[in-house]
Write a structure and sequence with these properties.
The complex is a heterodimer of chains A (388) and B (361). Chain A is of the alpha+beta class and 388 residues long. Helices cover 42% and strands 14% of the residues of chain A. Chain A has 3 domains: 3-108, Butyryl-Coa Dehydrogenase, subunit A, domain 1, CATH 1.10.540.10; 114-232, Butyryl-CoA Dehydrogenase, subunit A, domain 2, CATH 2.40.110; 244-364, Butyryl-CoA Dehydrogenase, subunit A, domain 3 (Up-down Bundle), CATH 1.20.140. Chain A has helices spanning 3-17, 28-42, 60-70, 81-94, 97-108, 223-239, 254-260, 266-294, 303-325, 335-342, 353-364, and strands at 114-117, 133-137, 140-150, 158-164, 175-181, 187-192, 201-212, 216-217. In chain B, α8 runs antiparallel to α9 (331-342) and α8 runs antiparallel to α10. The chains are: A alpha+beta (388), B alpha+beta (361). Chain A binds chain B through residues 254, 258, 263, 269-270, 272-274, 276-277, 280-282, 284-285, 287-288, 291-292, 295, 297, 302, 305-306, 308-309, 354, 356-358, 360-362, 364-371, and chain B through 1-4, 243, 246-247, 254-255, 257-260, 263-264, 266-268, 270-271, 274-279, 281-282, 300, 303-304, 352-353, 355-356, 359, 361.
């Protein structure tokens, strides 16, 4: 089947099976599980994953063709996004056969939900300085510590956990990756309210939680290289077009703003033109990246430029919209009050703007790296987190 | 929509880049227009005839290819009337005019195009030089007329042989061609900010001219796209230069490119480059394939790329530190070209205003 056919068939299937109702009833997690099961039966779950572990054994091209077909639909699979985009592919690449056999098929069938446990209160951009400890105890590892910014953890059955297993060596060399049972006693999941007032992620506390050694992913103290695999998959799944809104219902979009502001005012017109210029510039850049990918040129670190520009556009757009609409935008649950609260999120999640600029500087422009003081010092002697 | 260069377009880029690196390197650009270089540029690479239709001896290529070539001439800060001739060619292909297009394709004719808003000042009259200015009767296309008026700033006006100029007649605006070396033409070289590219004041005092046809629509949009391609090249070259310098210049015991104060600015400049390139590819594609999208694409190209080019050229100069402020250094050549280009087609606000109109705001 060629790609166009693949895409047409996928679209036809989505037309029949994707939910259409605006506000469906019932438990959203149950709905997500049900939809994933149908996706699996139809052969659209784990498109690039090996068939041996329940995938379809196809290529990025089919994956992207499906993503393109799915763009016109709202698929209710958000709770599976971490598993499908990050933790699952990590197990495909780095897990043992026993782990792949145990975990991958239930994920693809929508039976088990996954979260990812890397960031900590003291380790955000510098995630390798994390302090959650895993200490060997017979056939188990005993975990103590705290994780944060964990999406879908309150629904999760399993988590991919990065923990410190050796403090006598430099920080990147004393980390190990594990699969942790999120339902085990000693795991406490607390919703974390963000600045919009909604709880979109969680903080997780581990209190003497045992993990069997067969749930270790990769070698002891080789967790950083596994984490790099996970983060690579995160970027790939973002660049595949997951989560890009169409702007139709976005109250900060040009389409929405032109309905509510005085477009005869030359100052307003110029601001709207600026919004158009910036949105169009980024949209065309994204289209170019995707055309390059189709032609076999992979964007790599250049995707960080697209992410940085998107983050800046979010901030600009919400800020502009509230300035144009004026006092009413900040009272009475106005959609723009939510938008301006939400705007900083894109500049922080998935790497801050400063980290994106470092990546562009180091890996796209090949500029000299910054001198590091943390690469050779044993972790126990290193300053981490917030000091003083 | 096609935003990625084809194999052939990449080869064209490599050929033009290699040629300019050898024939017109940066240390040479202050010497100005070199006819020898142009003869080879037009002869060996056929650049003057790139978008001239094949029936007139050109390569019949589109704006996608033209953009590739202009990006390279821009990056090299190629001195002389290359862009001027491109502008004239764009206008002539819209009419089209066999005689001039053939001459341009063969590299015999250096042409330029009178820019708005000056064009409305030029009037055309039929008959021999010295006859009444008020006569509105004009001969057929190809017929002889005389033109009067003063053009304050003509790009490449001293170097060009032929001026393509819209002129007002009793029947509306027509395109005319004036022999700049002929009678009735006074050219005065202007002192230009951009040391690599000249402009002239041109006074037409009953200068003999040939009517080449009615004024064709859509020329301005295509000029905007062509200019944006040159600006993309200037932007890219300025960024490449300062990135290279940031890797070798040391301060406080470190390469300056390792400081976030420098690195982050360069990252932002790279983001502008990525978007500028995407817009130029889109606008060139629209000029070739999608006339309905061209007006908004052209206005977007000037509104975004013109500004981005100047900002990057400015920041590249600043990041050099004091050396970038010296006459001997090349940084100001990019800075000045970027500024001259930004205002070449009029004050930049006109592109933004046009965009507002096209968006029906």
């Amino acid at each position: 089947m060629n790609l166009d056919e693949y895409r047409r068939t996928a679209r036809a299937w989505l037309l029949d099976n994707a939910p259409s109702g605006e506000s469906p009833e019932g438990d959203p997690v149950a709905r997500a599980k049900d939809f994933m099961a149908r996706l699996y039966d139809a052969g659209y779950s784990g498109i690039t994953w090996p068939a041996r572990w329940g995938g379809q054994g196809l290529t990025q091209a089919e994956e992207r063709a499906f993503a393109a077909a799915a763009r016109d639909f709202t698929l209710p699979i958000y709770v599976f996004s971490i598993g499908l985009g990050m933790t699952g592919p990590t197990l495909v690449d780095r897990g043992t056969d026993e782990q792949r056999e145990r975990f991958l098929r239930p994920l693809l069938r929508g039976e088990e939900i996954w979260c990812q446990l890397f960031s900590e209160p003291g380790a955000g951009s510098d995630v390798a300085s994390l302090q959650t400890r895993a200490v060997r105890d017979g056939d188990d590892w005993i975990v103590n510590g705290q994780k944060v910014w964990t999406s879908v953890a309150h629904h999760a059955d399993w988590g991919l956990l990065l923990a410190r297993t050796d403090v006598e060596v430099p920080k990147h060399k004393g980390l190990t990756m594990f699969v942790v049972d999120m339902r085990h006693p000693g795991v406490t999941v607390r919703p974390l309210k963000d600045m919009t007032g909604r709880a979109n992620f969680n903080e997780i506390f581990f209190d003497d939680v045992p993990i069997p050694d067969e749930h270790r992913v990769g070698d002891v103290n080789d967790g950083w290289s596994v984490a790099v695999t996970t983060l690579l998959h995160e970027r790939l799944s973002i660049s595949a077009g997951v989560g890009m809104g169409t702007g139709k219902d976005d109250p900060t979009s040009l389409a929405a703003l032109r309905q509510v502001v005085d477009t005869a005012d030359p100052l307003v017109r110029d601001e709207l033109v600026e919004l158009h210029i910036r949105s169009r510039a980024l949209a065309l850049f994204n289209q170019r990246l995707s055309q390059e990918t189709k032609a076999g040129i992979f964007p790599g670190a250049r995707g960080s430029a697209a992410k940085l520009l998107l983050a800046e556009l979010y901030l600009f757009q919400a800020d502009l919209a509230t300035r144009l609409v004026g006092p009413e935008s900040v009272v009475g649950g106005h959609p723009l009050a939510h938008a301006i609260s939400q705007a900083p999120g894109m500049s922080l999640g998935g790497g801050t703007n400063e980290i994106m600029r470092n990546i562009i500087g180091d890996r796209v422009l090949n500029l000299p790296p910054e001198p590091r003081v943390d690469k050779t010092v044993p972790f126990k002697d290193l300053k981490v987190g917030t000091q003083g | 929509m096609k935003l990625v260069l084809s194999q052939e377009q990449q080869e064209l880029r490599a050929a033009v880049r290699a040629f300019l690196a050898a024939a017109s390197p940066l240390p040479k650009v202050r010497d100005g227009y070199d006819r020898e270089v142009y003869a080879r540029l037009n002869g060996e690479l056929g650049l003057s005839g790139l978008i001239v239709p094949e029936e007139y001896g050109g390569a019949g290529a589109g704006f996608a290819e033209l953009a590739v070539a202009l990006e390279e001439t821009g990056a090299a800060l190629l001195p002389g009337p290359f862009l001027a001739t491109v502008f004239a060619t764009i206008a002539l292909t819209r009419v089209p005019d066999k005689e001039l297009l053939t001459g341009i394709a063969e590299g015999r004719v250096v042409a330029t195009l009178a820019q708005p808003p000056a064009d409305s000042d030029v009037t055309a009259s039929s008959g021999s030089p010295g006859s009444s200015r008020d006569s509105g009767e004009l001969g057929e296309a190809g017929g002889g007329v005389t033109v009067r008026g003063t053009l304050a700033q003509v790009l490449g006006g001293m170097e060009a042989d032929v001026l393509v100029v819209p002129a007002l007649t009793g029947d509306g605006v027509v395109m005319t061609a004036v022999d700049l070396t002929g009678p009735g033409v006074t050219r005065t070289a202007l002192e230009t900010l951009d040391l690599t590219r000249g402009q002239a004041q041109v006074t037409l005092d009953d200068a003999p001219a040939r009517v080449i046809g009615p004024a064709a629509p859509g020329v301005g949009d295509r000029l905007a796209v062509a200019l944006a391609a040159e600006q993309l090249g200037v932007l890219r070259a300025a960024l490449d230069a300062i990135v290279a310098y940031a890797k070798i210049r040391v301060a406080f015991g470190r390469y300056i490119g390792s400081y976030q104060g420098v690195k982050h600015k360069l990252a932002d400049m790279h983001c502008k480059l990525e978007q500028a390139e995407s817009i130029v590819r889109f606008a060139a594609w629209a000029a070739d394939e999608s006339p309905d999208e061209l007006p908004a694409a052209a206005a977007l190209a000037q509104a975004y790329v013109g500004r981005a080019c100047f900002e990057v050229a400015r920041d590249h100069l600043l990041l050099y530190g004091g050396i970038g402020y010296t006459w001997e250094h090349d940084a100001h050549l990019f800075y000045k070209r970027a500024k001259a280009d930004e205002v070449l087609l009029g004050p930049p606000r006109i592109h933004r205003a046009r965009l507002a109109d096209l968006l029906e705001l």
